[in-house]
Design goal:
Elements (H helix, E strand, L loop, with lengths): L8 E2 L10 H4 L5 H8 L3 E5 L4 E3 L8 E13 L14 E6 L9 H4 L6 E13 L1 H10 L1 H21 L4 E5 L4 H12 L5 E4 L6 H7 L9 E4 L3 E4 L3 H8 L10 E7 L3 H12 L4 E5 L25 H14 L3 E4 L3 E5 L5 E5 L4 E9 L3 E2 L16 E2 L4 H6 L4 E5 L3 H10 L5 E5 L11 H9 L3 E4 L2 E7 L6 E6 L5 E4 L4 E3 L4 E2 L24 H6 L18 E3 L11 H20 L1
Helix pairs in contact: 4-5, 9-10, 9-15, 12-13
Length: 572
Amino acid sequence: MTMNTSTPIPLPIPESLAGRVDQMFPTLTPAQVERVKSHGRVRKVANGDVLFRVGDRTISFFVIVNGRVEIVREKSDSVEIGGSTSNDLIWTYGPGQFNGEINMISGRRALGTGRVIESGEAIELNRDQLLALVQTDTEIGAIIMRAFILRRMGLLENHVGDVVIMGSLRCGDTLRVKEFLSRNGHPYQYINLDQEDDVQALLDRFHVREGDIPVVICRGEIVLRNPTNEEIADCLGFNDAIDFDQVRDVIIVGAGPAGLAAAVYAGSEGLNVLVLETVGPGGQAGASSKIENYMGFPNGISGRELSSRAFNQAQKFGAQFAIAKGAVKLTCDHTAYGVRIGNGATLRARTIIIATGAEYRRLPIENLQQYDGLGIYYAATFMESQICSGGELIVVGGGNSAGQAAAFLAEKACHVHLLVRSDGLAESMSRYLIRRIEESPRITLYPHTELVGLEGTGHLECVHWRDNRTGSVETRPIRHVFLMTGAAPSTGWLDGCVALDDKGFVKTGPDLTPDDLVEAEWTAQRQPYLLETSRPGVFAVGDVRAGNIKRVASAVGEGSIAISMVHQALRA
């Protein structure tokens, strides 16, 4: 890419971060700078030197001793739609300050270009040296991690990244792509083709047809037409820093609360850990608008924020995450277990933690899939609430996730219809949510009621629900339905390797029968540990495990406990 030398236009500090500029761009004390020197090397930097460019796979961490460095987002005519082609100035760093944001920890590609604008000296650390600094120097580590996280928040709010999405609400995959990037904390610019004056001219400019939507443009160079999540992850280099040939101490399959907790503890205790995740951190909890009964957060915390914090924490301790690399098969060799992923590669580890959770059950409605992302949703976050703002909507389900969704969406919608098959909510929902639903004039509960039909051309336009006591069917012109019904365990990929109960959940510890162990050819001279499956060294935690209490705190607890058992298995 040719560097654009136009005068940089500074990016604004988002209002939400206006009071934290000193934390976003701190200045280290001379004593702190001296401590950093012991982890890296001092080098000369000259005016005009480019330290790294947008898209670079390897990015160094620099602490400026003297001189100045600016970070810019390079623009090109091929990317910007109806905007300036000059560069955006992200920030300028002087003595005692440092570059970087959370990509430095994860090992992903650079989102900005760093160039020297005043000659001087800088301390340079590679990624491994930076991780060592963050892990061993508590004071400096806290300053760096806080700055990195706040800077990423600023990039997200300013939509400063290396991705442009061209999409339409008439295309269900547009929501999927936006959710994938959002779940992974990756900033993007969104071009809404529904609001463009001359859509065809815009499509012609990028040589795409209407059927190719959504279009994802990576770094202004690569055009992806209705890409899979894996294609997006590969294009953006989400997994560039991962060596897939290593034999790990432990592979964790799934990055919901249980998998994230296991990753934090495994990394902090020095294990070589790789986490495989199909979509992004958080699991079902990551799709929750607010979790109010999780200890330590009296005002609640969104599932996305909780999972983002845990994700960053695990990476700080050296855990690696392979995104959009879901497991398709577990191989049961007793020497080193293997997990086959979607591209056919088999990853090896001495122990495995199954944390794939459970998925909302799909209703038995023939044309349900036709409306995925076009009126049928399985998450209730800010993104979905914007789509259905001001209209009527339906939430189907009687558990806490459904209750949280109904209460959250009622703040945006004119009315929420909550459909449950049972005679009420008391058996499956926390009392604080029941009270909130009962007291909200915008929420109506329909007990003994099921969704039975969907209609619409392109987008959902009309629904049918049935009262199971009377058999009567009611038709309503409602365009948005949120499905949060029950839980089906994500265990199809296990392919008979471990014992399951009659509902498909993984059996562990005392739930395993002698017959289960004989069938699995249990080889250890001991009984299975509490969270261990019918295979020695293979553990199950969270919603995927039979007997698990379906709460975030329970999942986090199991994930952390499992690592102590992993240590015991590794010592055997």
